[in-house]
Amino acid sequence: MKLKSDQTTARAMNRRLILNLLRQDGPKSRAELATITQLSPAAVTFVVADLMGEGVVIEGKAVSGSTGRRPTPVQIDYDHGVAIGFKLMADTVECVATDLATNPIAAIRIPMPSKAPDDVADLLAVTVPRLIGLAERPQAKIAGIGISMPGVINHEQTICVRSHRFNWDNVPLASLLARRVNVPVWLEDDTNAYAIAQQLFGLGRQHRNMAVLAVGVGISCALVIEGKLYRGANGAAGKFGHTLFEENGRLCECGKRGCLMAYHSEASILRRWKEARGGGEDLGAPELRQALVAEDPAAVAIVGEAGRGIGTALANLVNVTDPEVIVAGGEAVSLGEYFLAPLREAFSLRTFRSPPPILPDWEDNSWARGAAALVTQRMFDFESSGGITGIGENGYGPARAS
Ligand SMILES: [Zn+2]
User: What fold is seen in the domain 81-195+366-399?
Assistant: First the structure.
């Protein structure tokens, strides 16, 4: 039996190697795959035949070169399934249906009137057929649903262990949804999900070590180390916003004082700017952006201070983890160079080596795409945990990736 299991593992590893190569570099012929992976041509043919049988890979068009007809390349068929992503925000949900490369084919934002777990699961369940209708891909199979939310998530058990923003403890949200729909469901911290999407199909595609900074309602920084998302011992890695900014300072949502995000998250930037304006007015992110363009001194100073504060803290993180690049996302990135220039400046003053490049992500829908990436990551990593389905012992069991 040992031999059989070894063969299964070897096959799974070859499969992962080939799929990741096709993801990173695009279409390749079987001969090219064998040369690059150093697998035998027979092993490549075997894996490719398996993948074609499942509809994961298709043959592309053979191109004629100067030396005659080139061998037929194979490529991933990202249209063979639909992934659904839900990003839970403060009182809305961003919803997308994507192809398997997380390209959106339908997107809506819906209000979330209640944060009671069963109400949230009901809301998401009724939104699934709505999204599928909008996607207009009747032939495509629903590969699964990914949910991302801020918090400490046990991604293996797909449980929200703690979310300060939702005031949830040990909520099995994925199981609650899986009971209502008939496809696997994944749950992940929102910045981790965003980092997975960036690693698979975004700015981190060519990097094995990167930090993914998110500055929005909170501040966090996910780490991809040697090609794998680093979750820590308790799924609580990356809570960068709760590192100390000021001793005995402002109260944070976590209950402690002086956290970085209590000063420099986008929400804190807005609050501080409103205070500087004497309060009272209904001022939001669009007004802040207008004030920056008009070079309003208070706006420029507060946003610059946030950039510098985060930049200095980020240098500490970089000195410990040494990433190749830093991908920066979240609402604050839309504050542009008013935010990013001071951040880069403070950052480069404190890094031990020359600072790694900061790559801002300007894409729309990036966060909901992150949730959808939870579904597609399974194709590329046989070690990743399966989602939860509505079938199994006591009703809900994990659907292991094959
Ligand atoms: Zn905190």
Answer: Nucleotidyltransferase; domain 5 (3.30.420)
Contacts of 314 (CB under 8 A, 6+ apart): 211, 213, 221, 240, 326, 343, 347
Question: What is the CA(307)–ligand 1 centre distance, in A?
Answer: 18
Give average pLDDT by consecutive 10-residue segment, the chain, 402 residues.
64 89 92 94 94 92 68 92 94 94 94 97 96 87 94 91 94 96 93 93 91 95 94 92 96 95 94 87 88 95 97 97 96 94 96 95 85 90 67 36 32
Burial class (CB in 10 A: 0-12, 13-18, 19+), 366: buried
**For the sheet containing 219-225, what is the strand order?**
228-230, 219-225, 210-215, 325-329, 358-360
- Phi then psi for residue 183, to 5 deg, are -135, 160
Query: Could you tell me where the beta strands, DSSP code E, fall in 33-119?
Result: 57-59, 64-65, 68-69, 73-76, 81-88, 92-98, 104-111
Helix segments in 220-356, DSSP class H = 261-264, 266-276, 285-293, 297-321, 337-350
Give the C-alpha separation, 127 to 385, whole Å: 25
Strand 68-69 relative to strand 73-76, pairing: unpaired
Looking up tokens 């194709």 gives 379
Rounded to the nearest whole angstrom, what is the distance from the C-alpha of residue 246 to the centroid of ligand 1?
11
Burial 327-343 (b: 16+ CB within 10 A, else e): bbbbbbbebeebbbebb
Q: Which residues pair with 387 in a beta bridge?
A: 399
Burial class (CB in 10 A: 0-12, 13-18, 19+), 255: exposed
Question: Is 3.30.457.10 the CATH classification of the domain at 205-360?
Answer: no
* 3-class secondary structure, 86: strand
- In the reported structure, the alpha carbon of residue 239 is separated from the centroid of ligand 1 by a whole-number distance in angstroms of 9
Domains 81-195+366-399 and 205-360 share a fold: yes
How are beta strands 325-329 and 210-215 bridged, if at all? parallel
Amino acid at 195: A
CB 234 within 8 A of CB 302: no
Tell me the CA–centroid distance for residue 151 and ligand 1, in Å. Answer: 12
Angstrom CA distances, 111 to 46, 66, 93, 284, stand at 48, 58, 6, 19
User: 252 C-alpha to center of ligand 1: Å?
Assistant: 5
Question: What fold does the segment set 2-76 form as a domain?
Answer: Arc Repressor Mutant, subunit A (1.10.10)
The whole-angstrom separation of Cα 151 and Cα 185 is 17
